[in-house]
Amino acid sequence: MAPRTHISSGRLSRGLLLLSVLLGPGLCHMENVTTSSSQDTGTNPPTATSNGTAQSMERNYTAITQHCWDYFVHLMKKVLPSELCEWKIISRPYSELQNCLEGWAERLNYSYPNALAEQYIFQSHHIYFHNCTLEHPVYFDPPEDVLLAMIIAPICLIPFLVTLVIWRSKDGKAQA
Q1: Mean pLDDT value across the chain
Q2: How far is residue 107's CA from residue 161's CA, in Å, rounded to a whole number?
Q3: Which comes out higher in pLDDT, residue 33 or 18?
Q4: Which residues contact 162 (CB under 8 A, 6 or more apart)?
Q5: Entry pTM
Q6: What is the per-residue pLDDT for 87?
Q7: What digits encode the pLDDT tens for the residues 129-175?
Q8: Which of 64, 105, 129, 140 keeps 20 to 30 A from 121, CA to CA?
Q9: Does residue 113 have a cis peptide bond before it, meaning omega lies within 30 degrees of 0?
Q10: What is the pLDDT of residue 138?
Q11: Percent of the chain at pLDDT above 90?
């Protein structure tokens, strides 16, 4: 995963500065950070590149995405288990997670979608939405052998029907 080219004045954006103030010193110093999430996130940070600035950006994005995930988990704790598949209920937390991941990637000039954001989205589906089904059944293509039989049968009938029409037209009897 390659970060996007960073073109900046070297100053922190207002949003990053605000997040840094709100989250404390752990945002920029990853080696001292321990996450307090009660659930195992099961995510690995993206592979660091040799550039020190890119590594720092990846560490910042990794820390921010963890906070996005923690906020999503906090919002989902308020949702009743019977409401987990109702889009009107879960759209806000789900959109908050997606907007947080995408927004911070954009602010940090990090590519989006990326492997880390994708892991969090898949993780949310695996933990919260794995039992959700659609109201209307999803139709799939039939197996190949059935599909081939349905295609070949009419093709084979065409020469037979053409022969039958020609044979009946040569009978010579006028039909009224």
Answers
A1: 74
A2: 68
A3: 18
A4: none
A5: 0.48
A6: 87
A7: 888 876 666 678 889 999 999 999 999 999 999 999 998 888 666 55
A8: 140
A9: yes
A10: 67
A11: 35
Tokens of 104: 């911070």
Distance CA 52, CA 9 (A): 17
Residue 1, amino acid:
M
- 3-state secondary structure string, the chain? CCCCCCCCCCCCCHHHHHHHHHHCHHHCCHHHCCCCCCCCCCCCCCCCCCCHHHHHHHHHHHHHHHHHHHHHHHHHHCCCHHHCCCHHHHHHHHHHHHHHHHHHHHHCCCCCCCHHHHHHHHHHHHHHCCCCCCCCCCCCCCCHHHHHHHHHHHHHHHHHHHHHHHHHHCCCCCCC
Residue 140 is encoded by which pair of tokens? 């799939």
